[in-house]
Structure formats: C-alpha cells, structure tokens
Amino acid sequence: MKPVRLTGRAAIGLTRMIGRVTIFAGRGLARVGAHPSELARQMLHIGWLSLPVVGLTALFTGAALALQIHSGGERFQAGDVVPAIVAIGMARELGPVLGGLMVAARVASAIAAELGTMRVTEQIDALVTLSTDPIGWLVSPRLWAGVLCVPVLVGVGDIIGIMGGWIIGVQALGFNSTTYLANSWAYLESWDVVSGLIKGAFFGLIVALAGCWFGMRAGGGAAGVGRATTNAVVAASVGILAANFALTGLFF
C-alpha cells in the first residue's frame, strides 16, 4: 500500500497548494483600487518598461515566421499564404505566448527578488506591525498591473510582428506592399485578436502571481531570494504554456 499512500499524499499536497495559490490570488485581486499610486507605478514597471523587449521579440518573430512560411509553402506552390498565416499566427499564438514569456523573464524575477528581499529583511513584518496589509500594498497592485498591461503589450506585439513579416515579405520575398497588407487584413478575424488579448490578461496574472507568491514565501537569506526568483520564472513560464494550451482548446 506504500505506493498508494505516496500517490495520495502527493495528490493531497498538490490540491492544497492549488487552493492556497487560488486564495492568495483572490485576496490580491479583491483589493483593487486600494493603492492607486502604487498601481500606477507597477503599470509603468510591468507595461511601459517591458515594451522594448516585447517589441523586439515580436519584430524578429514575425520576420522569421514570414521566411519559414514562404520557404515551406513554396514546396506546395502555396507561398502566397505568407501574409495570412503571419497575421493569424501572431495574433492567436506567437504574440501572446512569446510576449508573456518575455514579461515572465523580466517581471516575475524582479517581483520575486523585490518581495523576497523585503521578506528576509523583515520589511513585510514591519508593514504588519504598522497595520498595513501586505497583500493590499504589495500584491494587489502587481496582480492588477499584470492583468491590465500584458494585453496591451500583446496587442502592440501583434502589430510589430505583422509589420516584421511585412518588411521581410516586401523587401526580401517580392510581395507587393499593398497586396500584402490587404491579405493580412482580409484573413484576420476579430476573434483572432480578441482571443490573444484575453490570453494576455491570463498570462499577466500568472506572471505577477508567480512573482508575488514565491517572493512573499522566500526565506533563508540571499540563497532563499535566489531560489524564489528562479522558481518564479520557471512557474510563470510553465504556467503560461499550460494556460495557453487550455485556452486554445477552449477558444478554438
């Protein structure tokens, strides 16, 4: 019966962890508007300062996607589908996923490091002593900033990625500029864009939640902060990929 007990113990532990994270996220999201100045600061940090890396990632992804689709499509005399597939691929999948992963690499680690340092230096305990709710002051603004900013980053990334494909299509692959843009617009449906933005909101929540969860639970000095940072990035990245699969199955 030992294998059964071990399996049951692991399942119960996983269920408890999911419950704790869900309650933690619910408490953070419920405190919306508690500290608008801190929310604005986090939106600047998560949104505006993440724009360069998301934009560059989308630009090179769109350009590489155009090259790959044209190369593969030529085998079946279907090279003209480049504009449509680049637009749909960026809006549905590559824009949200790559944008979320870039934000995870930059933001989840920063949040975990910041909150982890505050935890091990007892600054969070000091907030409690001063009758300040750490969840409302530290967690809620970061969660809502992630939910609000990442969809905007995804939308901007979609535009930049499609323009990257357009640049390569016109300059290197011989497409007519007007025809390329017209085909991109003709085959791109509104739900393709909206579904990507909805994904972005979920991915932003996952990134901020991973950073806050591991940062608030850090311990053991500098080594503990390092572990929290690593765990936050890994959890956010895996969570984004898993959520993308689930949302894609739900939407399409």
From TrEMBL:
For membrane topology, the record states: Multi-pass membrane protein
Q: Which Pfam families match?
A: MlaE
Q: What is its main location?
A: membrane
Membrane-crossing residues? 46-67, 143-173, 193-216, 228-251
Q: From the Swiss-Prot or TrEMBL record, state where the protein is found.
A: Cell inner membrane; Membrane
> Which keywords has UniProt assigned to this entry?
Cell inner membrane, Cell membrane, Membrane, Transmembrane, Transmembrane helix, Transport
A GO MF label: phospholipid transporter activity
- Which superkingdom is the protein from? Bacteria
Record-linked InterPro entries: ABC_MlaE_roteobac, Permease_MalE
- NCBIfam families the record matches: MlaE family lipid ABC transporter permease subunit
Function as written in the Swiss-Prot or TrEMBL entry: Could be part of an ABC transporter complex.
Q: What is this protein called?
A: Phospholipid/cholesterol/gamma-HCH transport system permease protein
Origin organism lineage: Bacteria, Pseudomonadati, Pseudomonadota, Alphaproteobacteria, Rhodobacterales
